[in-house]
């Protein structure tokens, strides 16, 4: 406390002293002193006379002896004031050096200048710490996109057919349709696709779209896998684990005298994945967060994942390894969820002008029931006029496979399959399952006009891109079930599908998560376990009488029997 | 977003997928100038686009002297002819919330009907109440809700004078890169609701000229905003997860900022399940 008071007193005195010297200076330069200033001067003199006199000899501040005295007094008051002391000295030296006309008016400015000069000197010692920003890092990573290939094979490249789509042209038409990711961004994606095609040697590649996430987004490229290429997946971990578990339990059974009761629950058989190249796994998908960052191949999708994805409603996070916290639990991480949603969106929204594709088998009349699962480009396709395409939905057809409720495009009979798996199964089981109704979806290349209306909302909205120049407009199709899915068709044979959105289906009037299943019964309820009322005395007696009567009757019977035997 | 900066700001929010085509942009540049002159607005903003089943509504917003209170919304179906939207009053909001369901149709005169059977006090007498709302009113109410709940400005972009007038801060030169990576540098541009509930300790740090609005980071539920850097990590982009389709952009270190709503005009009520 004391110290603080000291210092504050000191500052006051310092200010007083400063004022004094200033006034003296100004009086020298011919200014009138006002009485207040006089008072200050008197005060300061008093101060000096009260014995705060100094014998510290200051460095020679020139000419004015009194001034030096004042400053010395100040120095004596408090050691803490050394900084303000230094500052005052500097200010005063400056005042005396420059000898300005009206010191009182400019003293604040001089003081500030002195301070600033000191500060600037010090600042030059500090260096800015170079920090790499995210933008710089990204720019470094995107730099290779813009480097030209050095070898001179460009002429050859120009001639041969490239799997790389013309993204600039697509982007131009998409912009007409009111969809896009920004022109520069599209160009970057174009270059990134080129990188992907070159590095993976893909046969066919397409910009599928973009899925927005809460932290970062995914740019998705669709590629057709090469024939004969099989994904080398480790034998599904779950199955292996289960086997291990079974063997373990068997061993423990042998060791223990009193085995724990075994769960009688048998999980329903897992619907097998569709092989790569067919159905939901027809195409492979690569994703990247930003053009220029490495492309990541998504794993193939299993029917269980599609079934779970249908029941949940989750935003994407932006990290492929992130777990999907949901109810019902999703089998897999975000990469699997992303792949499942991509499969669903593709199945629902991949459309083309009618006639562009034709089904593969032309003599398919005999096997009409077999689902048509392949199509080829119709070389005789003439193109449909744009205004017709914008007006009627029947000029558009789905070329994506419908995914059945089972989670596969091609239905598989699980009843048959399970029998094959456990052949040792009892004979009873074989008789049990009825032949299940095969699930049938609409065949390939079904017109959009046959799509089912959900939530009182027509599934598609179609229009022209321009009302003013319809001659050169583009027919635009927007999906209402999958907000963010668009398709355009223009002129003759040009059409494209794209999806830019959150990867969520329109859910109508709010989503309600599925209820948890019924809890398992603790024990089977039958007569042995259920509690009954104790019999009353009368009841017991009645029962006793009945029993006795029965006994008597039996004895009588036996007696007669014996008699008969005796007779015999 | 301001009609003056429309030609480049649309590119910056295009990461959400929706843009306007060239014809619409050109039409807007012409019609918004005329709009500003006719209605004597200080400035005109392109507020957004509400997607309907048959047609889309383009929404413009005119602002007067007070940026907060002098607002008028207009809609157009073709980007050229603009019609004033009625102000959203409490009875209108009630009507819309009870009657309007499903997607916008694209026809302003489409009437939504809702029949409600109410029972009088004594029990047996049943009274059928029919609420009728046309789509124009629904549009006005929806725009009002979106404005109220998710309109965003960076901190410091607007100042409130001692008289209560809210105006653009001409000396605002943008958030720094580190500031723009945090949600508390962004404010709701609507009448504050949480500000008065804050404790003295919290408000002591605030500057009454700048911090007269609610902070985005106080929103419930947490995580109802997605903040990303796009266009080569140079543009700060905020997306609302509550009203899917609202995109805000801000170029750090420049005063450029704005938001646009392009969506189907439905609030994401499932947000709680989706985070």
Automatic annotation (TrEMBL), chain A:
One of its GO terms (biological process) is axoneme assembly. Residues 227-257, 360-370, 421-438, 548-568 have a biased composition (Acidic residues). The keyword Plastid does not apply. The keyword Hydrolase does not apply. This is Radial spoke head component 4A. Keywords: Cell projection, Cilium, Cytoplasm, Cytoskeleton. It is found in: Cytoplasm, Cytoskeleton, Cilium axoneme. Residues 224-271, 350-376, 421-446, 545-568 are annotated as: Disordered. One of its GO terms (cellular component) is radial spoke. InterPro entries: Radial_spoke (IPR006802). Its main location: cytoplasm. It comes from Pleuronectes platessa.
Automatic annotation (TrEMBL), chain B:
Coiled coil: none annotated. GO terms for biological process: axoneme assembly; cilium movement involved in cell motility; motile cilium assembly. It comes from the Eukaryota. It is found in: Cell projection, Kinocilium; Cytoplasm, Cytoskeleton, Flagellum axoneme. Its main location: other. Keywords: Cell projection, Cilium, Cilium biogenesis/degradation, Cytoplasm, Cytoskeleton, Flagellum. The keyword Cytoplasm applies. GO terms for cellular component: kinocilium; radial spoke. Belongs to the flagellar radial spoke RSP9 family. PANTHER family: MITOCHONDRIAL RIBOSOMAL PROTEIN S18, RADIAL SPOKE HEAD PROTEIN 9 HOMOLOG. This is Radial spoke head protein 9 homolog. It comes from Pleuronectes platessa. The lineage of its organism: Eukaryota, Metazoa, Chordata, Craniata, Vertebrata.
